[in-house]
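chain below, 65 aa
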Amino acid sequence: MSVILILILASLGVAVAFLASFIWAVKAGQFEDTCTPAMRILNEDETTKQALPEPGKTLGVTGKR
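prediction:
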């Protein structure tokens, strides 16, 4: 019977720890903007535009023998 009491107290302690960390994360602003990170991959950066070659051109190959 004492083992069940220990397990209940341990699980309550873990639940309180998770609840406290969730409340801290909400107050710290971790969940302020959930849409932008998913949409960020759809936008092209200036650095990726410079790194990619123009369509129809190849890098370093002239086609001459």
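The mean pLDDT is 81. The CA atoms of residues 37 and 43 lie 11 Å apart.
thats it, cya
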